[in-house]
Amino acid sequence: MNFTHTEERQLFKDSVARFIADTYTLDARNKAAETDLGFSTKKWTEFAELGAIGALFSEEDGGFGGSPFDVTVLFEELGRGLVNEPFLATAILGGGLVAELGSADQKAIIEEIIAGTKLLAFAHGEPKSRYDASHVETTAKKSGDGWVLNGAKAVVLNGGAADTLVVSARTSGAAWDEGGLSLFLVSGDAAGVSRLSYPSIDGLHAAEIRLDNVAVGADALLGAEGKAWPAIEKVIARANLALASEAIGAMEVARDMTIEYLKTRKQFGVVIGKFQALQHRMATVLLEIEQARSSVINAAGRFDGSRVEREMAVSAAKTLAGKIGRLVAEEAIQMHGGIAMTWEYAVGHFAKRLVMIDHMFGDVDYHVARYVALSKEAA
Question: What is the mean pLDDT of residues 108-133?
């Protein structure tokens, strides 16, 4: 299998890297994170004009790429820039489900997503579900030609800013069943929808969402009734691939900042980078990051294979991203000392994002256990 980027993909990677390096400052990013939206609408529009959103959708859906390697290339650069615009929530999760299951009329929304004029959120996780993606207690009951939704969703990425919510609800089965899950397109300001938005420690925003007798039409159903689980599982796998790739970019920046600091900080009149103990620790960091990168490449290469092959490779990549990301974050903080804990210094913000990536859509323990279970299934 050839893992070398195509010329077009390399050019895209370089253009995104230049755009972020030239225009995306940490100070502006942090100020945008403090707003009600949690990101800059101006920057989101500029990313759209650059083609960054469209790169996450196939040509059939009006995009410019959409392959797993397009996801890894883009999100690695987003990780380098600590970008907090809603690529994951809008394009990977919400937009990904519309692309997977939507009718021709429903897919018309993708054009607006790619243009940067429509924001989505995947309202799926619930207060009791933790990392179990099939655990859904929100219900959808038929009412005339439409549906009525009731339930609560927790920690919904971009949930407060989204124009449209992709809501998972149970139309049949028990709370833990994979069967019986359906998806609905719900306007963010629909009657009966209440949203409480809040910032997370890494600069992103999430929301708690309640649905109280939310009435939607028959055309709100995304895909076939009760058959949404395979698409949900696949889109979450794609989100984990994106997060693991983002972690690579963030780890490399934290590593480079730490190496630069070791070259300039002195103790007892000696540059601390000359201390052999610190050299050994940084060598470990370098090797571990390359291991994480290899797992991401493997996951991208196997993503279009069988379900078990895909899920095993993604869980392996997410496990290493979480484990190694935490190692890099801790080493960067410890080697920088007190300066790393200040708000003005960038490395602390990268460390917080790396820790949060581990906890999104399954932490290290969860994905290790999942990998074991999938291995038995594959045997």
Answer: 96
